[in-house]
Amino acid sequence: MPKSRAEPKVSRSDRVKANRVALMRAAADLIGERGYEETSVGRITERAGLAHGTFYRYFESRQDLFDELLPTVGNELLQQLRARVSGARDVLDLEERGFRGFFDFLVEHPGFYRLLNEAETAAPAAFQEHIDNLARHYVSALERSRARGELPGFEARELEVLAFILMAARFYIYLRFSKVEGGAGPIPDWVVAAYMKFVTFGLAGAPPERTRKSAPEADGTSERAATRRRRSTSRSRASGETQQ
Fold first, then answer.
1. With the C-alpha atoms ordered 197, 199, 203, 206, is the resulting torsion angle positive or negative?
2. Host domain of residue 33
3. What residue ranges are annotated as transmembrane (predicted)?
4. Which of 43, 45, 106, 193 has its CA 20 to 30 A from that of 55?
């Protein structure tokens, strides 16, 4: 019988990297399920399939891991979004691709929002680093679009405001239309369409010329105003004739 091929040896550096990744992933999963408070070193190593003492070869403490965790997962999110928006035709195509990619990431990482929300108190430095990273990349993308002439109505300093508006929208849309027990569900297409309508046309919800044409037809405002003007003119004339 032919001899079985020996398993390739794993280098020490590869093993170190794999163990560190396993600990980070185990911690992220546990926080998503239980929260930071109940994610102990023992539970992390058990989930990762490593000895308890192995943890301290990579992190000084549980808090040390917590302080690295959210920015690390956040970088995974940014990498996925960069891949999704690659080749976008314009700023609107880029925004829709990024929006859909964000919710796909939530489906793949069901504990992400608990990891994010509880970090504000459990790992505040990590929370701030993540928000800063996300905003910086968003603003950079908007700056590139503006440089191509795609955001003519915005000043350079307003792009950060725009970035935070769009980032905040994702959170509340998740809470209402994507959050399910234990994670996130796919975002409905009609929700994406409504979001893109707002991004494209603002609060008007339609191109300016369409809004101007449809508004008087919808409520009769212009006709009522014209009627009031005619009545006012008639009263003024009658008053003038009486005084004479």
1. negative
2. 12-59
3. none
4. 106
List the chain residues with pLDDT less than 50.
1, 211, 214-218, 241-244
**Which helix or strand (DSSP H or E) is residue 179 part of?**
strand 179-180
Q: Distance between CA 55 and CA 63 in Å, rounded?
A: 12
Query: Which amino acid makes up residue 144?
Result: R
Which tokens sit at 79? 């990498």
DSSP 23-36: HHHHHHHHHHHH-S
CB 205 within 8 A of CB 198: yes
pLDDT at 207: 72
State residue 1's pLDDT score: 45
- Residue 10: the pLDDT is 65
The predicted structure's pLDDT at residue 11: 74
Give the list of residues 6+ apart from residue 91 with CB closer than 8 angstroms, or none: 142, 145, 150, 151
Nearest to 103 by CA among 195, 186, 194, 188: 186
What is the reported pLDDT for 213? 52
Which pair of tokens denotes residue 2? Answer: 């032919």
Q: Does the residue 4 lie in any domain? A: no
Phi-psi region of 35 (alpha: psi -120 to 50; beta: other; left: phi over 0): left
